[in-house]
Write a structure and sequence with these properties.
The structure is a homodimer.
Chain A lengths: L25 H19 L4 H8 L3 H14 L2 E3 L16 E3 L6 E7 L2 E7 L5 E8 L7 H15 L10 E5 L2 E3 L4 E4 L11 H9 L3 E5 H12 L8 E6 L3 E7 L2 E2 L31 H4 L1 H11 L9 H9 L3 H25 L3 E5 L6 H15 L9 E4 L6 H14 L5
Helix pairs in contact in A: 2-3, 6-12, 8-10, 9-10, 10-11
The structure holds a DNA duplex.
DNA sequence: CAAGTTAGTCAGGAAAGTGAACATAGTCAA
DNA sequence: TTGACTATGTTCACTTTCCTGACTAACTTG
């Protein structure tokens, strides 16, 4: 008889068991339901118990049982009684998230710049800070120091509990390992294990993800994708990327790949992209293309042209600008058409410099998209521009933490 | 006090409530768990209660409680006791689906041809039948008659209970309404409300979907996508389409749109597609392109060339064929690259005439795909060819019914 | 001020998974 | 042949969770 090792029961290699969805236990169902209810609350905003019961198709009793402990715990707060409806009745008291309890830290990491904010559960920025580092910096320690101190600037001074840190990275990341794979223009960030390193320094859970996916999360939780079950959140500026929300959840490919829609091939015979391949969408719908074409057309300040100035030129009836503006709209539409043909999300939310083109650009893009897809019962896809000056990426980084922590909110 | 109408409680228009995920009740959890367990059983094949308990991370007790009523009901059967492991122990009795109880009807509708089969819960074809109609036929009644009689040929003669009818349509469908929107080469099918009409004639639930999505379901349930949580099932022959499995579920766009990857734009300056737009993937990777290029290259029988003969010509060191074969591989890779860049499913299962290219073609496609995507921690995507003569679409049509009916299997 | 209406709470009941103990049926070695 | 060992499958008391129905609270209207 062999002795059982002190470390625990003898390990026996299990039969090769494929990972499978777990079954739900009553206790697990409670966890799931608490999480879902909080999701619903985010979707609909401050809402009374009775209304939540109607939305989630359960009884008021159940809602009360779920919500009351959270109120006692300080996560949720009960608002002032609202006006009764004209039919009378006890006035409803809306439930909403605490504006101070358990905030999250949101970080946006760009080549040379880091931006950090303390974000409340209600989705508003409490404190903000930013710092710069040399984009050519190769020493990981220097970068980590910079990021850490920027975060510490926004941490609550009273040392109150923070849920975690969410990081949006403007480059390719491995979400499984919390590692940055590559960031254009910032070679020093390549290979940086930002997740584990930050987590160790701060003693907080850290989640990081690809910028357009974080942006999509921001749209889903706090922006115009709020109640949409599927949509594409596109960033279009100096580069192009997409975050896909499919059936209410942000889609990640294996280990966090995917979303590189800027480097899908749309023009086989086209020009060479900075990625080394030929005919990427980015070669016909990013700043680089805009500036090259503007130079050819002889537009003023062509080599620094962006969408806003181009729109103004086009609005002033500058013939070359008008023509370029329209081609830009068509080129932006190409990638959207392809996404719609493949996935048919039905809603496209555009961010980045492209929104500087305003309603005029949006309408043109929409027209080209509608021209480019067959009429189908699914209905015409909607193209919307995000507001130009929002913090949706920071809010998305906060949502990144929330989406992983909701079940920790007891 | 107004009287309550006889039809039921007075209907009161609810406050505009956004559709939201329901919370899970204990009873609902049971339903979900039964369904999940059956899904797991499909994924892993015949399996003992104890093994199922390990896979689904619940106790043997629970599995027994779920499985026993289904055995009593005849849906599941207990196999012969297996050999004990070398360590001894009571021999396990694998549980599996009944090969005769509650079969489904699978239908594949193509321009001019309909194929029907009776498929068992175990995923094997019990009976099969096919019929032809004029592809130019415009009378809906004639088509429905043809489909109905083809189905009745395979219905069990003893009138045993059939779960339902699944239909794969080689064209655009509206899955919400069970309506065919458009089928290339068969204008009479456009607008046909096949779902409701068949359902009324047969008295059975009918589900229909776009062919590549049905094919993906077949791969997911009975093919090489069986345990994969995400993959793309591509049909590539006279046309190109894709069915996407994302997180274990087949993705449908709004009302069943999406999957039209053949008409994504990959070659802006290219040739005009039969869809009327320019530069679709289909214009460079379907039969039409192959035959046009073969004619230019002076290959024999160019106007009826398909992939199999081309592969043989190339294998015989026919210079023009070899070069065309390679370009075809590259062109097929283009669309796969784009899908991988956007969604990174990590696995691509190819069906249709393209598989006639054999391992030689598969390797070339894989090489071009790997050349066309950045190295990323997610790992290199796998490209696989389905076996040439399988019934995966019919099995997928059966799975279409199963996936909607699992919770009806008590 | 009474009737009607809506919000929120309290006690009892049903569904479902858990965990420990037990019956069942094999292997292996003395 | 027997006993120790191992693994499968079943029985029963227990916990969690949500539902039902009755109740209190608060406001509007006539």
């Amino acid at each position: 008889m062999t002795e059982t090792p002190a470390l625990g029961p003898r390990y026996r290699a299990p039969a090769r068991v494929p990972s499978a969805p777990r079954l739900i236990s009553p206790a697990g169902a409670g966890q799931v339901n608490r999480t879902r209810l909080l999701q619903i609350l985010y979707d609909v905003g401050p809402t009374s118990r009775a209304q939540l019961a109607r939305i989630s198709r359960v009884t008021k009793t159940t809602i009360g049982a779920i919500v009351q402990p959270m109120i006692d715990d300080g996560i949720l707060v009960e608002g002032e009684p609202q006006q009764s409806s004209s039919q009378g009745g006890k006035p409803a008291r809306p439930i909403w998230f605490s504006p101070v309890d358990r905030p999250t830290v949101a970080v946006h990491l760009l080549p040379g710049t880091v931006r950090a904010a303390l974000v409340s559960l209600t989705g508003s920025v409490i404190t903000e800070s930013s710092a710069n580092f040399e984009a050519t910096e190769l020493d990981h320690d220097v970068i980590i120091d910079c990021v850490t101190s920027c975060i510490q600037d926004v941490l609550p001074s009273d040392g109150g509990a923070v849920l975690g840190v969410g990081v949006a990275v403007g480059g390719i990341v491995n979400t499984d390992e919390g590692r940055i794979v590559e960031v254009n223009l910032a070679p020093g960030l390549a290979g940086l294990e930002l997740g584990p390193l930050l987590s160790r320094r701060l003693g907080l859970p850290v989640h990081l993800d690809h910028h357009p996916r974080v942006q999509a999360l921001g749209d889903r939780w706090f922006g115009s994708g709020r109640r949409a079950s599927s949509f594409a959140s596109i960033y279009c500026g100096e580069a192009i990327g997409v975050g896909l929300v499919i059936d209410g959840a942000v889609h990640r490919g294996v280990a966090g790949a995917g979303g590189e829609v800027g480097h899908t091939i749309v023009d086989l015979g086209g020009t060479v992209c900075r990625c080394g391949r030929t005919g990427c969408w980015e070669t016909i719908a990013s700043h680089r293309w805009l500036q090259a074409e503007a130079a050819i057309a002889g537009l003023p300040a062509a080599d620094a042209l962006t969408v806003g100035p181009l729109a103004r030129l086009a609005g002033d009836d500058h013939a070359g600008a008008e023509e370029l503006f329209d081609r830009f709209a068509r080129n932006v539409a190409i990638g959207i058409i392809n996404l719609q043909q493949i996935l048919a999300p039905g809603l496209f939310i555009l961010h980045g410099d492209v929104v500087q083109g305003g309603e005029e650009l949006r309408e043109r893009v929409q027209k080209y998209v509608l021209d480019g897809i067959p009429v189908h019962a699914g209905g015409a896809p909607a193209i919307t521009f995000a507001s130009a000056d929002d913090d949706i990426t920071l809010l998305g980084a906060a949502a990144l933490v929330l989406s992983q922590s909701l079940d920790l909110l007891t």
